What does this fold into?
Amino acid sequence: MSRRSVVILILAALFLTGFSVALSRRDSRDWRATRSRRLFPFPWQDITSIHITRPGRTELHFTREPGGEWRIVLADGLADTLDTGAVEELAALATLTWRDPRPGRSAPDPDTAITMTASSQFGGNVTLAFGDLEENLRSAIIDNDQSLVYGVSQDLLTFLDWPSHRFRKYYLASVPGGTDPNRIVLQGDPANPDLTITLERDQQGWALRSPVAWPADDARLDHLLRWLDRLRGESIAAESVDDPAVYGFDQPSASIEAWYDTPNGRIHRRIEIGKEDGEDGVYARVADRSPVFLLPAQTLTEISLSTARTDPEAWKNFFRRRNLDQFNQKRPLQVTVEQLLPKPVTLVIDQDRATGLWTGNLTSDGQTRTFAVDPPDPTDRARPLTALFSGLASLRIKDFLADVSPGPETLEWTAYPAWRIGLTFDDGTTAPELTLYADDAKGSLPSGQPYQEGKAGPMNTGPLLDPRDQPGIAFSLADNPAVMQTYDGLAYFLCLPPYRYQSKQMLDLSIGDWRRVDQTVGGRETTFIRPEGEVNEQWWRQDSASEPLMDGNNRFVTMLLTLSRLRSDGFVSDVDGDIAEFGLDQPEITAIVYSSPEPGGEDGVSPARLFELALGKIADKEGRRYARLNGTGPVFLVPAEVGAAVGARYE
It folds into this structure.
C-alpha cells in the first residue's frame, strides 16, 4: 500500500472519530425525541403504581400486584377495584406519544399542573407534568425537564379530569391485596342482640361463635366471603351524609362487620344498611365515611339477611354446617350398634388387623351369636356395613331442633333414645357417640321405611327420596347438647336391625365331611347316606331298596354344593315372635346334614349333626323362600333355585 493511501485512511478514521464524539456531546435531553415518540420508558404490563396529583382536587392513587387487578386506593385503608372503563383508559398510557416538541413553548405551571408518576415493578419510574388544554393538546414535560415541552393528545388523557368516584366499582368491604377477613359479624337487627351471628376463623377453619358454637357450613361461608369481596353499590346516592335519618342510618336495618389482618395491620370494616329507596334498592355506607351507596335489595337475600326478622330461627342456623363426618379421615376398626327400643340388642363389629375380616357379635337376652359380616365396599351400596359407614361419613342435618341437652323438657320424643352408634378408629380414638330418638316408648320410627320388620335388608339399602315436608329422625352427638333432625333416607342407613349385618354367605363348608342328609318335603322323609369305604364315595338313597343314586348322583352332589355355599338374598326378621307368618313353624322343606351315617345322640341332639336348613313359604313372585338355620337366628330369603334343589326327589 502506498504512503498516500495510508494517509487517506488515517484521515478518514480521524474524521469518523470526531463525528462520533460530536454526536455523543449532543444534549442528552433529546434522547426521547430522537429514539422514540413514546413518553413511557417501560411497557404497561410492568407498571404497578400510578399516582396523580390534581391541585385543588382529589388525588388519585392506583396500584396492583404484578399481573394482578388494578385498584384505587382510598383513605383509611379502603380500596376499590377499578371500573373496567377506567382500566382501559389507564391502559392507553402505554400508547402515549408526543405530537409536537413545541419548541419555544413554556413548561406547565407548577402551581396548576397535573402530575402523574408511574412506577415499574422493576424499580423504574417516570413523572409527567401536564399543562392546560389547548387545541386538543396538553403541554407535557418528563421528569421535570422544562427544556423540552411536548404536545400530547387530550383523547388519551380524559381520565385526568374525571371525578374520583368515576374510577370506582363501589366495592364496600374489600381491602387492598384481596385479603380475606378472619372475623365477620352479621346483625339482622342492630337493635336486637339475639339477631347477631359471629363467625371466626382459626387453624381448624371457620366456625360460629354466636348465637351457638358450631362449625360453619363451608359452602355458605365461601359464598359469604365472595359476597363480601364483590359487595358493591349500583350507584352513589350522595357524596356525604348530612342527616343520617334521611337514609335510615340513625337506626340501621342491618349491618355487616369484617376484620382483616394485613401486612400493614388490622383493618376493620363496618357496613351499615339503611332504609329502602322505594325502587327495589337500599342505602348503604361504610360507617363514619362517605359516600352513600345504593345496593339492590336482592343483595341482602343472598346471605339471608332479609329474612333475619321474619324467620330468626332459620337465619340463626343459616351458616351452621349441615354435613357432619364422623370418620374425619380416619379408618374404623370397630363399630358398636345398640338397639335400645323396643328391646336391648347390641352388635359389636370388629375388623381383624391381620386378615382384614369383619366379624359381628350380636348379644340379645344374654345370648351372644358370632357371624361373618360383609366388608364395606364403596362400589356395592347394598352392603349394610357400607350403608352404615356411608351414613356416618355424610351425616346430613335436615333441621336444628334445640340447642339444649335432650330430654323430656326439650321435645316430647327426645325422652326415647332408640339407637346408639359408636366408632373406634385404628389410632385408638373414638367418634362422638350418636344417639337417635324414637317417636314413642315402643321405639317407633317414621312409617314406610324399609328398615321396618318384614322387608328384605341388604338389597334395599339405597337412599330414599325425602321431601322437606316429610318427617325426619331426631339425633344428638355426645360432644354437643344440640338436638338435630336427619333425613328419613339417611336414617335408614343408621337404623338397620342388627341381624341384617350378617354376611350373605350363610354357610361355607366342605361336603367331603358329609355322610348323611335327612330330607323332608311335604311330610315325606328321605335319608341319603354315603358309607365309608365305598368306591367313588357313592351316595345311597336309604329305604327298603337301599339303592345307590345312579344317574341322579351328580344332581344330588350339585344340590349339596349349593347347600355348602348357601347365600341369602336378604334378612327379614330376627324372629323373636311368632314364625308362623313365614311358614317356618311347619317348614315345607328341611334338610339336616350329619358327618356320620349313624347320627346317634339323645333327645335329637347329635355331635355328628352339622346344620339344619328349614325352608318356609314362598316369599315373592320370584319364588324366593323364607329360611332359617338350626331353628334359631334371623329369617332370611334364599333364591328359588335353592328351594327347587333341596326339595327335589333324587332316585
Notes: Residues 19-36, 457-467 have pLDDT under 50 and may be disordered. The chain has eleven helices and 37 strands. Residues 3-24 form the longest helix (22 residues).
